[in-house]
Structures are given as structure tokens and as C-alpha cells.
Specification:
Layout (H helix, E strand, L loop, with lengths): L9 E6 L5 E7 L5 E3 L13 E9 L2 E9 L4 E6 L2 E6 L2 H20 L1 H18 L1 H45 L1
Antiparallel strand pairs: 1-2, 1-7, 2-4, 3-4, 4-5, 6-7
């Protein structure tokens, strides 16, 4: 738990960016426990307690603020960066495994979502015939463009063959 860390305790920082990575740091000062909100507790409910922890990471001192005192892992948005801070290696391992599984699930759901898109397109076409007409027009225009491109290539080849034939005939008649 963050309230239990002491100077020289190890802290793990998981950076959840496009290329995630983990950094290790060492606590530099004794964290002080304080209430999360600076207002008195109401109706006898205990107030949530937090700690600020100063950590030395890669020869640089970083302070992580308002970490839940009773937890050993917490999401944080330090310096505009989405990170997970923990004083427990197993908790970071679990977080990484969870994020990996989420990515695997997203990749595995690709076919399912492609099928949904096809179904939604069909439903939209049924509900809005003008959308179906526009889509059919787009497809027809694209087909015509492809045919024109093919015809243009064929004409160029024919012209080239014609020039070659005329050159050969010219040479034979001389």
C-alpha cells in the first residue's frame, strides 16, 4: 500500500502510451498521509486518504500526487501522461497482462465488427433507399472510371503497335 512505502522502497511506473514501457524508481522521501478533500467528513463516514510520493526515476526526481493510501496500484496522469504507479511488481504484472488481453480481444473481434458494419449498411440501405442509390451510383462511376483507364491503356498500346507497323512498312518500301 502506498501509505506503507518508505524511503528507498521500489516503485514501478507503467507508461501507457503508444509504445508502453515500465520504469523503476526509488522513493526519496517519507510520504505523508492526508485527506483527499480538505473538507470535514460528513455523517461519520471516513474520508479517503491519499499520499504524495517523491520518486527518483532515471536520475530525475518526480512527484506522484494524490495516490490512494490504501491501494498498491493507481492510475495517474502525471505531467499529462497516462501512467500506472505501483509499489508492487505483481500488481504491475497483472496490469500489463490485463492491457495485453484487452488488445488481443480487440484484434479477435475484428471479423465480428466487420460483419456488423455490413449489416448496418444493409439496414441503412433498407431504411434510406436514396443512400442505396447513391452507393450504387458511386460503384457504377468507379466501374466506368476503371473501364476508361483500361481503354486508354489499350488505345496507347494500339497506337504504339500502329507506329511500329508503319515504321516497318516504310522501311520495306524504300
Amino acid at each position: 500500500m502506498f501509505q506503507s512505502v518508505r524511503p528507498n522502497s521500489q516503485i514501478f511506473i507503467l507508461h501507457k502510451c503508444d509504445n508502453p514501457y515500465v520504469e523503476n524508481g526509488v522513493v526519496t522521501t517519507q510520504p505523508l498521509i492526508k485527506p483527499k478533500y480538505q473538507i470535514p467528513a460528513t455523517f461519520g463516514q471516513p474520508q479517503e486518504m491519499v499520499v504524495d510520493i517523491s520518486v527518483k526515476v532515471n536520475e530525475k526526481n518526480v512527484t506522484y500526487t494524490s495516490l490512494p493510501a490504501q491501494l498498491d496500484i493507481s492510475d495517474s496522469y502525471s505531467n499529462g501522461e497516462n501512467i500506472v504507479v505501483s509499489d508492487n511488481k505483481e500488481a504491475i504484472n497483472s496490469e500489463v497482462l490485463s492491457l495485453k488481453q484487452k488488445s488481443i480481444d480487440i484484434i479477435n473481434s475484428k471479423d465480428y465488427h466487420e460483419n456488423l458494419i455490413t449489416c448496418y449498411d444493409r439496414i441503412l440501405s433498407d431504411l434510406n433507399p436514396e443512400l442505396a442509390e447513391k452507393k450504387a451510383q458511386k460503384e457504377e462511376i468507379e466501374t466506368l472510371k476503371n473501364q476508361m483507364t483500361d481503354m486508354s491503356k489499350n488505345i496507347e498500346e494500339l497506337m504504339s503497335a500502329n507506329r511500329l507497323l508503319i515504321e516497318r512498312l516504310s522501311i520495306k518500301t524504300i
